[in-house]
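tool_log.txt
---
The assistant was asked to compare two proteins side by side. It first ran the structure predictor on the initial sequence, then on the second. Raw inputs and outputs are pasted verbatim so the downstream comparison step can read them without reformatting.
(1)
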Amino acid sequence: MKTILNFAFLILLISNTFSQQTSATKLGDLKSIYNIQDSVMIKTRDGAFISAIVVRKKGVSVPKPVILQYTIYVRDKGRDIKSLKEAADKDYIGVIAYSRGKRFSPAEIFPYENEANDTYDVIDWISKQEWCNGSVGMYGGSYNGFTQWAACKKMHPALKTIVPYVANRPGMGLPMESNVFINPNYEWSFYVGNNKYLDTIAGNDRQRFRKMQFKWWETGVAYKRIDSIDGSANRLFQRWIKHPSFDEYWQKMAPYKKDFEQISIPVLAFDGYYNDSQNSSLYYLRELQKYNPKTPMYLIIGPYDHFGTQIGGKIDLRDYKVDSTAIIDIKKITYQWFDYILKNGTKPEFLKDKINYEVMGANEWRSASSLDKMNNGFLQLYLTDSKSGKYYSLDFKKPVKKAYLFQEVDFSDRQIANNDYYPDPIIRKEIDTINGYIFISEPLKEPLLVNGSFFGEIKASINKKDMDIGVTLYEVTPNGEYFHLSYFIGRSSYARDITKRNLLKPDKIEAIPFSNTHLISKQLSKGSRLLVVINVNKNAFSQLNYGTGKEVSDETIQDAKEPLKVKWYNDSFIKIPIWK
């Protein structure tokens, strides 16, 4: 009976959609050069329905390659159809499919969870249509980038290439970064999950969620109860925080480990140095390079943020004036790539090698054969206990005598926040020196090109069982400005294995490796210095880890009775990738 009711609802929904079309719209369709099917329903293997739109040029009888976008964002239909007409104008068939539960799909909405299976079924349906020549390419950004990788969890033979922009990897970047849940995704769950389209009222109500965030911070209630402060239950948030480890829940959403071995189709990815989800996006490429190095994989990356990447960059980025050569025509390159792969055309001229990156400060593009080949050396610098002016010395030499710097963090004190790591603005006149420790190098004797992702190892002992740390890397320019290069935020108990929590032993010196930092390319000038800030993560913008060893989402301000006492040892180091 339930199946019959669902089907009846589906027919009623489609009928209502057709009945709402005005005569003017119908007349416009008759005059149009496009054949638009805007109420397509695709049935999945498990009986769900996916809503889709198909756009073809009228009068075209020869099967064509298909350009597919798969998204959770049901925006203005005219906007989506416009992007499909672009595909048709370039001699392709344009298809956009919406996540299960969105638009005309009667199912419940669960972001991330069904995309691997549903993208396969949509591609399978497309490949069997008389207007498809058996080849499908995908493109799009953010969530739409994730869905392309989800489609590679189980490869369909018709999928010939993907072009992900700033692709999200659920569980790795958002809603948590290195196992620390961060707050930007909180209202997103209402934005995409409240109705069949988008809840723009909730999604744009920044004041509501900022107020909630700071009240949570001030009151010290458990993180899992943050929605009780807002007054509206957040079912998706509650679903996510039950999985603080990168467990099977997250793993099954997209390729994981040996899943990458089966991916042999060409990939062209776009990303930005200041894309918040860069660690997600580059995770896919690093794993693909690791498990199937023969796969043709290309990357274009430059000084862009999450949204800027998707439009090819913008001149002003968080008060940093971007090099003029960094601005690109991303849509043009995307379709050049599709012509290359799907029509045996010419490879885009922009792709000089596999990795193509803009060097900030040099106003030039360079290329490398792989991510690892972006650099040909490292600077290993120790976080010493020796004073260097008002900071501590960031030194090439490992200290002879083991020593430490002591920090005490009172989690009950909400007047002081720690870890001002976020790169906005990118260039600062000053940085927060109230807490944490700051290490600075000697002035560079010659220009230096920093190229890649920095990593390192923190040696520390604490009186508790866990802590969240932040490491931020700056260039201090000769004129005294602080140029934000990259950062890390992560949970110490997951430092060695993101799938399993391993608590620290109180008062024992622990080695805490970190590597999940943002990749950059920046030309540093002679006389500049490198500066590293290390701190405990304590602020209103993410989970607060009190260090008890309990599930962090369960901890409250009642767990803050004993301050966290940290000994940062002077044999801690960072390694900065450079090009000599």
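(2)
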Amino acid sequence: MLISPPFLPPRLTHDDDAYLETAMRSPEHGNFPVSHKLSWHGGLHLEAPARSNGREPVRAIADGIVAYVRQPTARPDTASEDEKHVLGYMGWTDDGCIIIRHDSTIGAQNETETPVRFYSIYMHLQTIRGVKAGQTISRKAELGSAGSFEGHANIIHFEIICDDDNLKRLIGRNTGDLNLTTNGRTDAVFGEIYFRLPANTRLYPQRPPLNEKSGSGETVLNEPLFVGVRFGGGNAYVSTYRADGTRVGAALTENNAEYELYRQAGNVVQAYRAARASQVPSHSAVYELLRFGRILGPDALTPSDTPHWRQISTANGQGWVNLNAAGVFKYSDADAQHWAGWKLLMDYDDQNSRCDIDVVRNMLDEDGDGITTRSEAENRMKDAGVQRSMRGMVCKFPTEWQRAGVAQRWNWLTKEGPSSKVGKTPSLMKSTYLSLADFPAFQRHVEALAFWEHAALGGIDAAHWHFHPRKFIEHFRKCGWLSVGEMKRIYADKESVYRDVGQSGDTVKERFRLSLNLVFRKYLLNTSVRMAHFFGQAAQESYFLMATREVAIDVSTAIRENHISAQSEANGYLQITPTNRNQLLFFAEPGRKGYYEGRTSLGNTDQGDGIKFRGRGMKQLTGRYNYSEYWVFRGWLDRNSYDAGWFNNGREGPAIGNPQIVADIPYNAVDTAGFYCAKNNILKAADGGATAEASAAVSRLVNPFERPLAPTRTIETKSSYRILGDEN
């Protein structure tokens, strides 16, 4: 699922928090209507950022289908008419509204994806730009312009809501706190990786050997702690938390740890080999251990207790812990942990369209006297810690937009006042928010804005879950899992290329989508710019994902004619025979580009190695040596089973009997490219941006011998980034 804020100002920084702060800025009068609200009503008021020719338009936050549209009421021409109008209560309020239903996916358990559905609500629109109910809409599409709220211009009310079932799929549960007696979910895994360390976890002043599970000078933590490991910008950031979310000590930075994850995993494997261990873990499995803290892919970790050493902060300084020790449980941001601020609140029995239970009231009660005044709430809402806590609250309560029952839901305004306790009748010295005489005008205003009955959103009740929109968007921007619809937009302008060879672009892309998501997640390719570079290179290397094996003739002709070199090798890898030799001259005839026979630089020493180890996979893994490196990486081949210098000394080389599996099995085809990216530190080059210069740097790593560089690589990188990134 790709998601972006409802406003897209120019991106002036790579810091996502800073960007969202600019894109989702609340107006000066606060997040709540100035007239009466002191409790959370499930949405945010956002101010449209300024741009050179006015204000940024309101945009769809994700792909979806428009579920409801209400065109805005025309505003009267004069101020006096404004005041008389039902929408002029406390100042003019625009009533234009759009609701989008978003159906997406955020992960998968084996072959089964995790579907999610949520709704985004855009209220107080002044204009709506050609949006119709029932139409499919893409992320970043313009919806209209921000309108007025109680006389304040350029404001929208923005909500994100879902039902019980989808809350469970979105954050892994729909009640209570995260279960700490087992590992977290494995279908959706993204963002920071967390480890719950029991109080008896052993701590060491120096890192023990990479293959050892203990060292010298040990102490114990003496308190349960949570350790978070976050990768980004080439580094790893290691933070320690207590159960209430407070940090312990300073966050530690492991410089270049993200870029060097492949090498670090290799060091662990080498430590086992140097120790002549009876079991040596595969490089791929150790990579996942360091990446996720556990194994999510198909390559088993053997031994399963391979240590994962990290230096952490503690209350008494710093030390080294084994994050794969017995009793350590693993999670990720996808688990929406309570120590990261997530809290589920239910307040729908009183049917008053507000979430004002004690957890909220007490947080805003500045002096702790049981009375939450407006001034107290405003002061507390300026506190950064309070803001973070409220962002993590996911609250279930009735919508404020239902026309029926307005008087019942809002009559607390005539019973409570700015200085009264909840539900208490105000004293003679204190007033209510609204008098009984004023309430009818307010009621008519609320009923005029209401839309719930007309929207008729199927499957979601009037009492539903409300996310803090900033938190929701911030959270799922870490996901990076491409849905069917999002994948369809990649190479969408190349449909004629697919048709010309008798293929359907959507079918080709869907064949690899699940594997692409799994590989992007594993190798940290799941940012918009890194994915864009992958698709840019794959357009050239695998002919827009259609060719996962090197062919003997022009690639488009080979696919169109189902040439023997383009066919599946499910029954065994292709070999040159007297019968087919003329069709395979590209591989069989000396002097041809594909004649790899006898190329010792590629490790091809046995007769038939040339075509046996032709290019396969999305990066076109080529040559017996490169195949052996990948086979060892996956744990399919023991490095001790052959002589490492076979191609120079004539000794026994690696035995690989099924090279075709990296072309015929989608996951393997994509994983070979992920492996190549990790081994050659392509992430660092890709992080240069979706530019011609960065694309050239990536291209030189992918194909060092290509001169000049194929323009397709840069063209498709930029094209993919226009879809995957936030830029318009």
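---
observation on (2): The CA atoms of residues 528 and 724 lie 5 Å apart. The longest strand covers residues 112-128.
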